[in-house]
Amino acid sequence: MAFLELNNVCKSFDGHNVLSNVNLSIADGEFVAIVGYSGQGKTTLISMIAGLTTPDSGEVRLEGNIVAGPGPDRGLVFQNYSLLPWLTVYENIALAVDQVFADWTAEKRRAHVDKYITMVKLSHAKDRLPKQLSGGMRQRVSVARTLAINPRILLLDEPLGALDALTRATMQDEIANIWQTERKTVVLITNSVDEALLLADRIIPLTIGPGATLGEAVPVRLERPRNRTALNHDPEFKRLRALVTNQLLGFNAARKTSITKKLIRPELLPEDLDLPRVNRPPRRLGEEKNETLSVA
Amino acid sequence: MNKFKFDWLILPALGVVIVLTLWHALAGKKVFNPTGDATELAAAIAAHPEAATIDKSRIAKLMTGPVTVEQTKALPADLWTSLASSFYEETRVGLIPDLPNVIETWVSSKPYIVDPWAKRGEMDQGILRFTWYSLVLVAQGYAIALVIGVPLGFFLGLSPTFTKMFDPLIQVLRPVSPLAWLPLGLVLFMRAGPEAGTYAALFTIALCGMWPTVLNTAVGVRAVPQDYLNVGRVLKLSRWKMLTKILIPATLPYMFTGFRLSLGIAWLAIVAAEMLTGRPGAGGFLWQEYNALIYEHIIFSILTIGVVGLILDRLMSLVEARFKAIS
After folding, report:
1. How far apart are the C-alpha atoms of B272 and B261, rounded to whole Å?
2. Do A75 and B230 make contact, defined as CB atoms within 8 angstroms?
3. Residues in chain B within 8 Å Cβ distance of A52
4. Which residues of A touch B249 (CB under 8 A)?
5. Residue B4 has pLDDT above 80, yes or no
C-alpha cells in the first residue's frame, strides 16, 4: 500500500475545471517533485493533500485513511511563508510546537523549538520579528516550524519561488540536507526543472489546464548527495532535464492556437509642410495586412 | 534639523498667528461714549487728588469719545471707575461687535488657566478640573463602547449572515447625532433618579462612539489573510486559540484605527451630553457661560475641547502606529 495516494481527484472552482482525474501514489520516504506552469493548479493539488480544500470527486488517502481535513500529520510549507507577523521567530515555531506537543513539559517543548531553530541556522535571530528577516530567513523559519511538529509528510508549495537565485540555490542545498537527515516523505511543488532534478527521486509533470492532470512520471536516479556544479556536466542529468522540459513544452504546444488579426502598418510618408494645414492627411503606404499570430 | 523645526514649529505657529489676527480684526471691542456734561467731567477729573500727575494731552480724547479701554488708562484706576458709571455709556464696536477679541478672551479666561484645579463653585472651576470631569465620563462611555463594539465587530466580520441581518441597521443608526440620542437616553433612564443625566450621557457616548470600532473590527476580521487561518487549520487550533492566537492579533491594527476614531466621536458626544444635561465639564461650562452671556468663555471652552481632542487623537495614533508597525 502506498503511503500517500490520490485516486481520480477532480476539483473545479466556479465551474472552471482546474484538476481532473489526478492519480498519484507516493511511497514512504520518497521525495516527489511536481513540476508545472504557474496557475495550473499546483497549489490546489497540494492544498487537497494538506486537507485545506476538499476534492469535488475522488479521494486522498494518507496511510490508507481518507484525508478529511487539515492536520499536523501533513506539514505544509506555504508558498508565501505565512509567518505570523506579530510573533518572533521563536514564538512562531513555539505556537506550532505547543499545539502539537501539548502533553510535553514546557522545558521539553522549549528545547525542541531551539533544536529546530538551530537546525535552520537562525539561533542568532530567534527573537526577531518576521519583518526583520530576509526572504531566505523567513523561509527557513517556515521550514523549521513545519519540521518541528514532526509531520508524517512534508508538503512544500513552491517554497523557494519568491527568493533570488543565489538564496534559492543555498536553500535547495539546505532542503536536500534536511531530507538526508530526516528522511521524510516530501512532495515538492516547483516550476523549476533544475530544482526538481536536484532534489527529487521522481518528477511528475502537471499538464496544462483546464482540467490539468499529472503527466508521466520521470524517475531521477542521480546519485546523492547531488552536487549542483557536477550535475551540470552529468549526461544523465542533461537527458532527464531535456526529457522533463520537452514534456512540459509539449503540453504547451498542444494548446497553441493561432488567430488572424487585421493590422494596419504604421508606415507614413513625410508630410509636405508647404501645403495648407487643412486637408493635409498623412498618406499610408502599407494599408492593411493580415497577420497570423500564435498564442501561447 | 532646521528644516524639521520649520515644518512642525514655525509654519504651524505662523498659521495660528494668521488666524488670531483675523479673529482679532473681525472681533468687536469695548468702548465708552461720553454721555454726561463735559464741564462736570473736567471738574471731576480736576478734583481728584492725583490730578496734577495726569497727562493733559491724553485727557482730550476722554472728553469727546468713543474712549477705548487703553485710553482710560490715562486716569488713575479708582477715578475711572467712579467716572465710568456717571459720565459714560459702555458699548461695543467692530465688524462683529459681540464677538470677544483675542485680548478680552485671554484676560477673561486667565483665572481658569493659571489656577486650573480651582473649585470656586459648581460651574466655576479651573479648566483642568472641568476637563477631568469630562474625561472621566468619556472614559466610562468609551469603555462601554469598546466592550460592546469589539465583539459586535467580530460577529459582523465572521458571519456573513449576521452582516446581512444587521449591517443595514447599523448604517441607519451610525449617522445619528449625539444630540438626537441624548433625549432618548434621558427617557430610558428617567426612573434612575438624580443619576439619570449621567446614564443618559454614557448611553449617548457609548452609542455614538461604538460604530467606528464595530465597522473597523469587522473590516479587520474580513481582511485577515487566509494564509494565517490556514496555519491555524493545519495545526488544528481550537476555536478559542484560533481567536486569541490568530484572529485577534491579526485584527488589532484595524481595531486600533477604530478605537482612535471612536475616541474622537466619544469626545464629540461629551460636549453635547454635558450641554443638555447641565453637568459640570468642558461642555457644560460652555453652555453655562453662554447662558451667563460671558462669550469669552465660549471661545475658551471651544479651544480647550479642541486641544484635548487633539491630544487624545495623538495619543491613540501613537498606540495605533505601534500595532501597525508590527504587521
Report:
1. 17
2. no
3. 230, 233-234
4. 84, 86-87
5. no
Query: Nearest Cβ partner of B235 from A80, A99, A129?
Result: A99
The pLDDT tens digits of the residues spanning B162-178 come to 999 999 999 999 999 88
The pair phi, psi for residue B99, each rounded to 5°, is: -80, 120
Contact A82 B228 (CB under 8 A): yes
Spell out the alpha helix ranges (H) of B88-225. 102-114, 127-158, 160-173, 178-188, 196-222
Measured in angstroms, the CA of B316 and the nearest CA of chain A are apart by: 19
CB neighbour list of residue B50: distance below 8 Å, 6 or more residues apart: B76, B79
Question: What are the angstrom distances between the C-alpha of B166 and each of A175, A198, B163, B178, B262?
Answer: 50, 56, 5, 21, 19
> To the nearest whole angstrom, how far is the Cα of B149 from the nearest Cα of chain A?
23
For residues A34 and A129, give the distance between their C-alpha atoms in angstroms, rounded to a whole number.
32
Q: Is the CB of B227 less than 8 angstroms away from the CB of A52? A: no
How far is Cα A1 from Cα A5, in angstroms, rounded to an integer?
Answer: 9
Q: How many residues does chain B have?
A: 327
The CA distance from A107 to B235, in Å, is 21
Residue of B nearest to A70 (CA): B234
Residue A47's Cβ-side half-sphere holds a number of Cα atoms within 13 Å equal to 18
Cell 526572504, residue located:
A135
Task: Give which of A67, A79, A80, A82 to mutate to test B binding, by max B Cβ within 10 Å.
Answer: A82
Of B288, B278, B282, the C-alpha closest to B194 is: B278
DSSP letter string, B27-79: B-EEEEEE-S-HHHHHHHHHHSTTGGGS-HHHHHHHHHSPEETTGGGGS-HHH
For residue A165, what are the contacts with CB-CB under 8 A and spacing of at least 6?
A: none
pTM of full prediction above 0.90: no
Q: What number is the ipTM of this complex?
A: 0.76
Query: For residue A202, what are the β-bridge partners?
Result: A32, A219
What one-letter code names the amino acid at A175?
I
Tens digit of pLDDT at every position of chain A (296 positions)? 688 999 998 988 888 888 888 899 999 989 999 998 887 888 889 999 999 989 999 899 998 888 888 988 898 988 888 899 999 999 999 999 999 999 999 999 999 999 999 988 899 998 999 999 988 889 889 989 998 998 989 999 888 877 888 888 888 888 888 888 888 899 999 988 889 999 999 999 988 877 788 888 889 888 888 888 888 888 888 899 888 888 888 877 766 666 777 766 666 666 677 777 676 665 555 556 667 766 55
CA distance B307 to B137: 18
SS3 A212: strand
B234, A76: Cβ pair inside 8 Å?
yes
- At A35, is the secondary structure helix, strand, or coil? strand
Q: Cell numbers for B6, please give them.
A: 520649520
Cell readout for A55 is: 476534492
pLDDT of residue A283: 56
The one-letter amino acid at A151: P
- Angle at CA A271, nearest 5°, toward A266 and A274? 170
B225 contacts in A (CB within 8 Å)? 82
- pLDDT (0 to 100) of residue A269: 64
Asked if residue A209 lies in contact with residue A54, where contact means CB atoms within 8 angstroms, the answer is no
